[in-house]
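hey so u asked for the seq, here:
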Amino acid sequence: MMALVKVTARDIKIGAPIDFAIYSASGRLLLTRGHCVQSDSQRERILAVGFRDPDVGRAEQVGAAGKLLISTGKHAAAAMDNSVTTSIPAALPKTLDGLQVTLIGREGRPLRTGFVGAIRGDALILTPSSENEPMTIGAEVECKALLGRKVYKFSSKVIGTSETPVKLVYLAYPNVVQTHVVRKHVRLSTDLAGRLIRNDVVAAGFDAVVENVSLGGVALRLSDALLNVGEHFKLALRLRADGKLHAVVFNCIARNTRRCADGAILVGAEFSSQTVETVALLRLHLLETATDSAG
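ran it, structure tokens below
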């Protein structure tokens, strides 16, 4: 086992990639080289438990930090939108918005499961959907999940199943979790054609293009000023989720409008009073889009 030294405060700068791997006191890898620390709380946690290889030159770390300071704005944006980090098991949240499971060595779409909960350090508990092929004990899997602004990715294996009182699958708790920060509120860029339906107009609707979408709302591009701020309307879309196209109607409230340079009107709208089924489809659409796993 290599000789390790305690990580110090000058070793880690928020927003700057670390130039060495960080280990626990027992030598277990916690963070890989190139990880970007995003917050004071994460930095303090690393300082409390982290060790490093003393043979890795500190001069390289200083040089990397100097390069970062040349273009702080650009690198800060990249850290928000595109960072992929490796974190300790405690970084996996207690709840997840569903979980996609890919059986290693088998063809086909990822399997959609329901996340029940976790026994920290031991197991993740899932409910398989009825159309899923059985996950047998010992099968190795790759998992992806979405929660808030983050996509989580990790490897595991099936360690148990049960049939009663409900069907459950148990996965080994992951040793390492990769975290991809999408952006705040997970607003994904799209180019979806839709129909805007005003509540006070008897018509088939107006053409609209959805430029981005989140669980909370959308940004619409319209050819004319069709909506007033505060106006309630409906938006009909066809969302791809679970390998199919679904016709969905969202209840919306216009929150802001502005005219673009090309004369089009951009509308920021908030979703309101959605059904459980509609929210579930939108969540699955966002997950598949964010993880590039749409069927």
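The chain has three domains: 5-87, 91-181, 185-290. Confidence is low (pLDDT under 50) at residues 57-90.
lmk if thats what u needed
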